[in-house]
Amino acid sequence: MAALKSQTIETKKGTRCRVLEGGSGAPVVFFHGAGGLLADNPFLDGLARRYHVFAPEWPGYGESAGDELLEDMLDFALHGWDLVDALGLRQPHLVGHSMGGMIAAEMACLAPRDLARLVLVGAAGLWLEEHPIPDIFAMLPQEIAEVLFVDPARGAALLTGGADLSDIEALKDFYVVTQRRLAMAGKILFPIPNRRLSRRLYRLTAETLVLWGASDRLIAPAYAAQWKALIPGARVQTIDGAGHMLPWEQPEAFVEAVTRFLA
Amino acid sequence: MKFTWFNLMPWPYLPDDFRETHRSVWVDIPSTLYDPRKGHHVYHTYLDQLEYAETLGFDGIGCNEHHQNGYGLMPSPNLIAATLARRTSRAAICVIGNSIAGYNPPIRVAEEFAMLDVMSGGRLVAGFPVGTSMDTNFCYGQIPALTRDKYREAHDMIMKAWASDEPFAFDGKYNQLRWVNCWPKPIQKPHPPIYIPGGGSIETWDFCLDHDYNYSYLSFFGYLRGKALLDGYWERVARRGKDDSPYRAAFAQIICVADTDAEAERLYAEHCLYFFNRCLHVFPPFADPPGYRTMATVKYGALSQLTRARQKILENLTWKQLVDERFVIAGSPETVRQQLEECIKGLRIGHLFCLFHNGDMPDWKTRHSSKLFAEKVMPHLRDLWPEWKHDERWWVHPMDERIRPEEQRPGAEKPRAEWPR
User: In A, which residues are within 8 Å of B137 by CB distance?
Assistant: First the structure.
């Protein structure tokens, strides 16, 4: 298995981001969601068997710094392209999960000819009145695992990386890390994760795959249909046995679906 | 010492099992629990009490801003203050305050506060809270991580609007106005005294000291728990090389006075327990959304008052705990005097926001407690800071020839009966 290595990339704007990198082949950039990358991300290893995979962490996540430099949707999307530039990539495939999907779609609207293909996985960014997305900023920790995973107990363990939260110091560390991440995510997701992307999606030219966990309790599968309706020619694929955290819940099915689409 | 009579204006009809059957008194409390016809009586009772407090000799009467909240019926404190401006003429009107990050555009606050200062003849104390996360983020939709930045910008616009004699353009990140021209202007120059209510954010201390504003710690958990925070503040004051006038700081305290300690329990216990058990029942995530507090504050460990740990304290609370831990200062005039002296000196505060109406307390008990305090406690606490006697930097400076429109004051004459059913 291709082991991912970690490096720090500085963008022109001055953010310093940790990027996991591995494999060879066509470049694929994976953008994580509001919860960040987890301690183990087996689907990245899976993708790295066929592609040259890059998985940057947003500022505010892990060791990545420069939180204060990004404040709104345009900042986040341009930061995405700044990273692509700093990594020296040309026309990479963009794969975005949840908030990462929202940013990837925005990037593709801004510079439609600068990417190869686009994969949106349980992507945030749209709002349907009949399917209000639960407020992740007003949840108890145990409630978060319940909306993110088909199997909340297993999910909770994934989220904490197996840390023992009965230990007060571990709990404090976990709390500080989580607060910092979601503070950052809140800039584009609070109070409603809709920054009017739907008005710009007409610009998309990249072929797009919309992937969804069949049991997503955070962003209901109805949103997949909405993405399809807004993006000309988009394909939708739903994967069973997965909730919102599809790439972690069904890594093999996820890698297979992405690989088949990117070919 | 300055004493301000403060009413949070709680809804007195929350059901007995509110805590068990609802997750929060704030943000998503069912609005069906509110009855506007009863609300009519509630507002007038509370407004009468504020007017009554002036006749008792309190220096100030106060109100604040909360939204979607079962213990704070003042989404617009300026409406409350406007009625008080017409019906009082001596007491400072302390609006603590307007959560300015949520006003669009913030010039509205400059205008309304100026109106209040003019109507009251220069009696306005202007509070600028960041606002609780319940109010500012969850009810008013401001992004937590940007709230403080937006707050600072709103503050800058308001202060510049009051200071400037010429129209100016304001090119802010959150507010752009081509023509800022505050009309009317406040009577008090250069501006009314500014109070910054803080929970436990350490940045707020520096903000107060940068501008020489009053820092008001609005806690419901008494001076024993407030001490660590105020100690931190005074350390900061010293490090910044500022004088240590106690008038730089204010503290809120629940107070219940009766003829004896036992009588205080008999009269007030159930109402204070109503307040702590029902009114402070807040769903913890509403109190602490990521980004609302800065990382510096999160790491400093100054936790919001309504976090999980606090909710734990509120379970199975008894009167004895409330009194022993000084969440409530209650008892005979002498007991209350002793404890308040300890509170005032221990925290080094020049302003006390006194909370006499608590939970579902009926009007007559509220007045009884307030009157005993005004007659038998307040006079003994007046001169605790003799060396700062003439420090008026954080108090109102009303004009001399004021209109006194409050001659007919039915509210001041006699208490109302129990809450109407």
Answer: 137, 190-191
How many domains does chain B contain in total? Answer: 1
CA distances to B61, B86, B260, B352 from B58, in Å: 7, 17, 23, 11
Q: Domain for residue B419, yes or no?
A: no
Chain B CA closest to residue A67: B145
ipTM of the complex: 0.91
Interval A145-171: pLDDT, tens: 999 999 999 998 888 887 777 777 777
C-alpha distances in angstroms, A61 versus A164, B64, B69? 21, 37, 34
Give me the sign of the Cα torsion angle B62, B65, B66, B70. Answer: positive
Do residue B290 and residue A178 have CB atoms under 8 angstroms apart?
A: yes
The predicted model scores a pTM of 0.93
Asked if B286 and A178 come within 8 Å (Cβ–Cβ), the reply is: no
Q: Tell me how far apart the alpha carbons of residues A60 and A71 are, in angstroms, rounded to a whole number.
A: 12
Whole domain around residue B270: which residue ranges?
Answer: 2-413
CATH architecture of structural domain A5-262: 3-Layer(aba) Sandwich (3.40)
Mutate to test the interface with B, among A136, A137, A176 (most CBs of B within 10 A): A137
Please tell me which of the candidates A176, A178, A187 has its beta carbon nearest to residue B143.
A187
